[in-house]
Write a structure and sequence with these properties.
- This protein has a single domain (5-196), classed as Arp2/3 complex 21 kDa subunit ARPC3.
- The termini are far apart.
- It has helices spanning 5-22, 44-53, 55-69, 78-100, 104-134, 140-148, 157-192, 195-202, 213-228; strands at residues 27-28, 38-39.
- By secondary structure, it is mainly alpha-helical.
Length: 234
């Protein structure tokens, strides 16, 4: 369903603000992956925006939340760039698939495909963008040792990313996808602003119809016929 330009921009701004706020609710899962890799759900508003407003809106939400986060960055923009690219890898393909057909089956397919693409995209992004930045503060061997503390036979960054980060990112994408599928339908009328209209649309079905002029004319004609009819004689 199309929305006005003003509503589109307003919703993108709202989703971006929520997404930015969710970035601060990250948490580590030390037994699964080194603690410097965090789990968060900041892509959730972007995925909802991608479903409701189109894939470009989802990408825009990912971009805006990271542009805002630049004001407090500790990674010179490298972390924000990586976060944007990985988030876009989830919301854009998912939004494109859901745009083709709006039903629950395609929503599930879109979310699953988006999560897989997000995980696959995280490998080169982390390998060539994120981790080279980490090397400025931690030697590569120190980072590998953090992975080895969980799984001893992991002996390289490439293998660490493949064994830990890639599946972790897919699981993160699936978690965001599951929440989206569960809450999108109830939110959709609010997002598109047709919830109240839909209720009013059904109201006339329960109202009693008023007599039309045609019905009154037929009634008068019947009465005239009854009055003017000759009496039956035995």
């Amino acid at each position: 369903m199309k929305v006005s330009r003003t509503r589109y921009l307003t919703l993108v701004a709202i989703f971006s603000a929520i997404s930015f706020g969710l970035m601060f609710l990250d948490f580590a899962i030390p037994a699964v992956i080194p603690s410097f890799v965090k789990m968060d759900f900041s892509e959730l508003p972007a995925l909802i925006a991608s479903f409701a407003l189109g894939p470009s809106a989802g990408v825009l939400v990912c971009l805006i939340k990271n542009l805002i986060h630049l004001s407090i960055t500790t990674t010179s923009g490298v972390g924000e760039l990586a976060n944007f690219l990985i988030g876009a890898a989830l919301v854009f393909p998912a939004g494109m698939i859901y745009k083709y057909r709006h039903n629950k089956l395609y929503a599930i397919i879109a979310c699953f495909a988006g999560a897989i693409i997000m995980g696959l995209a995280s490998y080169p992004i982390n390998l060539w963008i994120t981790y080279p930045f980490y090397y400025n503060f931690l030697p590569k061997e120190a980072i590998i040792s953090m992975y080895q503390a969980i799984l001893g036979w992991v002996d390289s960054i490439e293998l660490s990313l493949l064994v830990f980060n890639l599946p972790f990112t897919i699981v993160k994408g699936l978690a965001v996808a599951i929440i989206t599928v569960l809450i999108y339908k109830p939110l959709s009328p609010i997002i598109h602003g047709y919830g109240k209209f839909a209720i009013k649309k059904k109201a006339p079905e329960f109202e009693e119809a008023e007599p039309s002029e045609t019905n009154e004319e037929i009634k008068d004609t019947v009465e005239d016929v009854v009055v003017d009819a000759p009496e039956n004689k035995e």
